[in-house]
Amino acid sequence: EHQSRRWRFGDFILRKPIVLGHEASGTVFKVGSGVQHLKPGDRVAIEPGVPREDDEHCRTGRYNLSPSIFFSATPPDDGQLCQYNLHNANFCYKLPESVSFEEGALIEPLSVAIHSCRRGGVTIGSNVFILGAGTIGLVNLLVCKAMGAAQILICDLSLNRLKKAKQMGANFTIAVDKNTSAKELSQKVKEALGGTMPDISIECTGAELCMQAGIHATKSGGVIVLVGMGKPFANVPMLEVGIREIDIRGVFRYCNTWPVAIDMLASK
């Protein structure tokens, strides 16, 4: 979506046509001679990011940060929306029979949430504020619940999205409009939580106002995780970040998430 509207995604610029698709699952047709864990006929989910070299990021387990990584459907690399696709076997994960192909493909957005919640340190008893109830906001809601969050609050402009969030287990929802200020939104969060502030805020919109509100709302010593992809520069209250020791943590895709995502889906 980013590329089709803007013809670029950050520093990744679309200069020629590419095959789309980075949410994929399928059936193994053929394997290389060195592949031992897969065979033709196996059902697999496909992780789209594959490191091209064994650099410092790969050696520390954060291969998503490797600057030379192959990533499906990100220029100049082709995606997986095709009948046959050649992919590194180490990034193809066998699906149990209880997990459908559709669920296997949607491990990709689920992985964004797993990585985001790990980056934020969501754990048993956490109070979490999620900004944005779109696809990524809602999967973050599910993962927060799975990781043991005590109270989860989510906001959005759309009442329909908030209704869905409530159905999916959000403890509180806040409807905002275009006239709501960042401080007003943060005050509503505090009121909803009975005077307390969230330990972790997960920003899933990329909107400047939501970044500001997430900082204002997060308790001192807490964490805000930036998941949404917005403009290259944003005006945020950095003095407050410093004075209240709020950690700002970025999220770029994911790493080491497919196995746990498959386990989550298999136990549903």
Write a short abstract of this structure.
With 268 residues, the protein is an alpha/beta fold. The chain has helices spanning 2-6, 56-59, 101-105, 107-120, 135-146, 159-167, 182-192, 208-217, 238-243, 258-266, and strands spanning 8-9, 12-13, 24-27, 43-46, 49-50, 70-71, 92-94, 127-131, 151-156, 172-175, 200-203, 223-226, 247-250. The longest helix is centred in the middle third of the chain and has 14 residues, at 107-120.
Oligomer: single chain
The main β sheet shows up as:
6 strands, parallel
Average pLDDT rating:
95
The portion of residues assigned to helices is 25-40%
Order of helices and strands: HEEEEEHEEHHEHEHEHEHEHEH
Query: What's the total helix number?
Result: 10
Question: What is the CA–CA distance across the termini?
Answer: 29 Å
Strand order of the largest sheet: 10-9-8-11-12-13
Report the radius of gyration as a whole number of Å. Answer: 19 Å
